Each structure stands twice: as structure tokens, then as C-alpha cells.
Amino acid sequence: MKKLGITLIILVALGSLGFAKGGQQGGGSSSTQAALIGIAMPETHVQRWQKDGANLKAAVEKLGYRAEVAYGDADQNRQNQQIQNFLTNGAKLLIVGNINDGVNSAIADAAQDNVTVIAYDRLIMNSGDYDYYITFNNYKVGQFQGQGLETGLNLKEASADAPKYITLFAGSPTDNNAKFFFDGAMSVLNPYIKSGALKVIGPYPETSADNANFQRIATENWQAPIAKTRMENLLNNDAANVVLDGILAPNDTLARAIIEACLADAKYADGKLPVVTGQDAEADSVLSIKNGQQYMTVFKDTAKLAEAAVSLADQIIKGQTPSIPGATLASGDLVSIGDTGKKQVKAYLLEPVIITQSNWQVPLDAGHFTAEESARLK
Ligand code: GAL
Questions:
Q1: What integer pLDDT is reported at residue 15 of this predicted model?
Q2: What is the CA(304)–ligand 1 centre distance, in A?
Q3: 309 vs 370: CA distance, rounded Å
Q4: Which of 258, 279, 299 is the last residue of a domain?
Q5: Which helix (H) or strand (E) holds 198?
Q6: Residue range 181-205: average pLDDT?
Q7: How confident is the model at residue 29 (pLDDT cuts 50, 70, 90)?
Q8: Contact (CB, 8 A) for 354 and 332
Q9: Minimum-distance ligand 1 atom for the alpha carbon of 181
Q10: 149 in the same domain as 161
Q11: Which residues line ligand 1 at a C-beta cut-off of 6 Å?
Q12: pTM confidence score
């Protein structure tokens, strides 16, 4: 009787473990454990990625899977090691925001082990070893930045007789997104440059395809100190004899570094900053926008991206045909967003939102900020 009781208790305990975990059918190293999802994030020095890691982990656990998160610190070898660890730990699926193409050997190893990979936010280029990508409409992000300059500089009224002056910055040359952001922005700005209403100080790649000039304006690994130094050099050299009206900055981290460099220059101190663009709706930048320094940012609701990525993961693990609420499968012109150069992967896109002083509350209302950040913004 006693024996039967113990057996029953063990059976009930095992059963409840199994039924409680939605990821059960994914397997894992032991049949009673929920499937493991490995989350590899690129860096922590850009605030958004800290949120992405936390959001993804919460969303994965909410669906009953196990989650492991690792940050690569902008070092691809380190991230590859982290991915290997996920594989060793029996991960069923990986969600990867990579640093550069050096990730491909790790992605190939995952494919070898039949582990599904979802490229998260950044397309993993030159790989044919995975099938899914989830991100925002990155071309539109760039268009919003171009429109920020168009509105902020009132370019529709500018002419070759009274031109506006801008300088251009791009994101990391190893991040495929940086090209989409830049090309989207230039699709808005190029007509004004052609007409002479807008003049570019410093290198002018018409698109990211002008690789030599694109490299000159790009910012390795999105490092703020690199952008700050480049801005200081511009202010002392190419831009020494003009007053810049605008600066195309690809994200908030770099926008703030650029603004810092400008504020140290007498021409731009005391409310005379150029119109500076951004991206990510980081708390410090939204505060800067609210206070009239940075001109705009682009809000990408990364909590929604994380939820959508995990819903995609869940459907793949369950063998379903993915249908992701809030995200659309790229089609038409946007299909190229999923072209790795070796394979066309399925790209699911979420919509970004443009933020200026008139609607800075939008990311706050969406719950984008931590309690501490929200308190600073109010
Ligand atoms: C991009 C990402 C941006 C940005 C940047 C810097 O890939 O889409 O949101 O923050 O990386 O990490």
C-alpha cells in the first residue's frame, strides 16, 4: 500500500511537470523537461538589446519553455561560443541577433543538429542554414529618419539658392539592417540633394551600394565613441566653415554621442543644435526629444517583437504553419529583406512608429520603459 502511494506520488509529480510545460513536445535532454530555447543577443551597450533579452526570456517562459539568454558583447567569437553552449545544453530552437557573418559556422552547426534558428531583428547574411527571420520594416525605419530631416529642415521650401547642410552617419557596416536604414533615409533625401536644396558635408554615398563611401560614414559595431570622434573631426575639418542644419544619425545611442560632440562646439551650444535623427526610442533620447534636443526617433516596440518571435518559435516547434499576430510575411519589394545572399528566408515584419516632440509619450504609454526610466520621463 505504502509502495503504491509513493509510486502514485511520483507519477503525479512527473505528470504535472509534463502537462504544465507547453514546450514538452519539443523534447530536450529528458522527456520530463520543457524544451530549451537559446536566446543569443548581440550586445548590451545599446540599451534596446537589454530589453530584447529580458522580453524574449519572459515570453519564452510564459509559453512553458525553458530559456537561456546570452549577450555577445559585440564579439562574434564569444557569441559563437554561447551558441555552442546552447547546443550542448540540448536547445531545440535558437533566437539569434547576431553581430556579423562570423556567426555562420555556429548556425551551420545548429542546422547539423536539427536545431531551428530564427534570425532576430538582424538578418544573418550569407547563410543558407536557416529559414526564418523576424524584424521590423527596416526600410521604413530609414524612411522615417529621412522624413524627420525633411520636416525638421522644411526641405520642401528649401532651394539651391538657400540650401540646407547635413552630414551623414550610418550604423555598423557588419549589420545588414544599417544598409536598409540608410537606403530608406536616402530615398527621401536624394531628390533634395539632386536639386541642390540639400548639401552633404563629408562623404556622400547615394546608397549603401557605394561601399567605399558607405564605409566612411559607417560606425563599427554601433559604438558611440566612434561616432563622437567622427563628429568632432567633422566639426573641426569638413564642417568647420558651415553651420550644419541636420545630421542623419542611425540610432539613439549614436545620436546622443553626436549631440554631445555638437554641444561642445560654440556654434551649436545653447539651443542651436542641428536636427538630429535617431532610432529605438531609448529613454535618454525620448527625454532629449521631449526637451527639444534630439529631433526624432523611431519606436520599434521590441516587446511586441519578442512576443511575435516566441509565437513563431512555438508554432515551428509544434509543426504548425506560422501565422503571427501583428507581423506580416514580407512580400513584393520587401521580400529582399529576407535575402541572405544564399537563400530567401521567410521574413516576418512588424511596423515601426515615428516619434517627435509631438508624440513622445507613445513609447511610454506602450510600456516600453522600466519604472526608473518612466519616472525620469514624467
Ligand atoms: C540594429 C537594430 C537597431 C539598433 C542597432 C544597434 O540592428 O535594428 O534597433 O539598435 O542594431 O544595436
A1: 40
A2: 16
A3: 21
A4: 299
A5: strand 198-200
A6: 98
A7: very low
A8: no
A9: 8
A10: yes
A11: 46, 48, 121-122, 171, 175, 177, 222, 251, 279-280, 300
A12: 0.90
